[in-house]
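Tutorial, part two.
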Amino acid sequence: MSSAIQTPKLIFSHRPYWAECFGTASYLPTSREEMDALGWDSCDIIIVTGDAYVDHPSFGMAVIGRVLEAQGFRVGIIAQPDWQSAEPFKALGQPNLFFGVASGNMDSMINRYTADRRLRHDDAYTPGNEGGKRPDRAVIVYSQRCREAYKDAPIVIGSIEASLRRIAHYDYWSDKVRRSVLLDSRADLLLYGNAERAIIDVAHRLGRGDSIDSIRDLRGTAFVTRDVPNGWTVIDSSSVDQLGKVDPITSPYVDTSATESCKKNEENPDAVEAVQTVRIIDPLQARKAGTDAAKTVIRLPDYEVVKNDPVNYAHAARVLHLETNPGNARALIQRHGDQEVWLNPPPIPLSTEELDWVFERPFQRKPHPIYGEAKIPAYEMIRFSVNIMRGCFGGCSFCSITEHEGRIIQSRSHESIVKEVEKIRDMTPEFTGVISDLGGPTANMWRLNCKSTEIESRCRRLSCVYPSICKSLNTDQTPLIDLYRDVRELKGVKKVLIASGLRYDLAIETPEYVKELVTHHVGGYLKIAPEHSEEGPLSKMMKPDMSSYNKFKAMFDKYSKQAGKEQYLIPYFIAAHPGTSDKDMMNLAMWLKGNSFRADQVQAFYPSPMANATAMYYSGKNPLKKVSRTSEDVVSAKGLKQRRLHKALLRYHDPEGWPSIREALLSMGRKDLIGYGKKHLVPPRQPVNWTPKQGKGRRILTQHTGLPPRKTK
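Running the prediction step on this input gives:
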């Protein structure tokens, strides 16, 4: 391993070397016939993805493919291959450099199963919305098939599925802690987060003859190793976040008998360390102590420890989240049996110039012609939208966007965004003049960053807006107002809608932004996400209290009236989130009824890998604070009956849930909420001729709850 973690820059090539001879392809090739038309005898890189091939900047495989193409590499796409054998993975031959394997834009398990572990029968990333076109745990399955097809071809895995499984992680579908996806996939390298820089560097190194095993110094990468190289300082994770009295974790590289924690245990084995604020060793302190942060690695508890000890799991999750700021994050290492999974620090965010370059590749902005007239719902939804930024500093504990894209906002330039809108207008015959979205992970974080690069590089807050908006955060959304106005005034543009999730606690910091949004960019309804009304659940979600919502609603109503428009807010809420009691859900239901909200669809908490709320769900501890045996306990609704009750309370108006709500109200001593009045939640009896829905209470079998395995050839 080299002496320092590298941060390569994007190489702004604009035309592939082979284009001079063969001409630029309208799409990346997906078959031998298409390769032949280009005059290719082989591909340098083959991308395997679980999504249909849509050549649009909102689809990850298209972005990576076009970026690599611009570096002069011949890139092929194998989209949604039949994984029952290795033959489909041989369609383009053996790649000269490597296979790039991704599950697609979504995690394959979340794509395939509901929050109640029921099998889905649709897939928005597949032609015809057809389900079952990708395997469960697609990254693992695809990687294994690539290895079967060409055992010597290097395999590089990525996408959100690999990114969120880079260390030992709780797997909701099997209800156990699984080891890093690197080991199960047998991949050579894992790229996490937005990986343009890393994938370019990997391709160029392999292209000049370097071995895949020699690439160990790139940010945003993870790999398997046998030992810690010479010159590195190993710090036990308990030095980063004091864990309290927990069974000691044996490290094969550190003499733990000489540490202060072990001396304390020897002197008084029953002592429990006092709960205190997290003690962080940042790079400045590390240098003063004689250690180089660039050559320091933090040892997380072993896989064998976290899979059997939920408290250690919560501790490991907390440390990982504290080490996600690219400005001060250190490498992490976690032992799995006789192997080590090594995580280099997160990638440095792309500059505006680099992000513009990525989004200005020659995308066709359409699905590949092989799909004919079949509709791909995910494409239909975003075909006339423009992604203006990446990242999210909200830090909501149930969301994994921050762990994937980072907390530092990466913004495109005003000019580049306008240019893309003009491209949509001029290239798309179906364009009717309506831009469906200007946004990203969050609608109104464009150009919002820390006021001080020095503070930003040292910060370890999990959120810039919780429990309150950081005073160092720039919250001025005036530039976004100017962008909205310039785009809506373009010739041929009739309407610009904002469909991305809105952070309303930020929006109210710039009232003029709310006025612009409400007056010109709402199509009758605006979706926002308070997520809950009660302080207990909100504190576990890292969401603001309802005072921000009330201020925003007042502004929304005021500016809608001034514009002479009848518009409505559609609030989203989460059922069964960790830390939510039946009483909390009852109070939320009463709030909904008091505000005349009737939710047609409700969202139940989904424990996605690596999210802080998932660590709460599995461990019963709160990783947003210091973790110890005696630290705060978090109760979660895990049984199907209680999860259904929480969903029923969100849909208090649906007779299907009334029996369970009445039963819960009686058990809580709230019989006073049963009746026919405005202050009652549900009536005492079911409607006349009411019968339960077909299938009510029937257990739906999945591959993880009893369904026989799929047949293999």
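The radius of gyration is 26 Å. In part three we will examine how such features are distributed along the chain.
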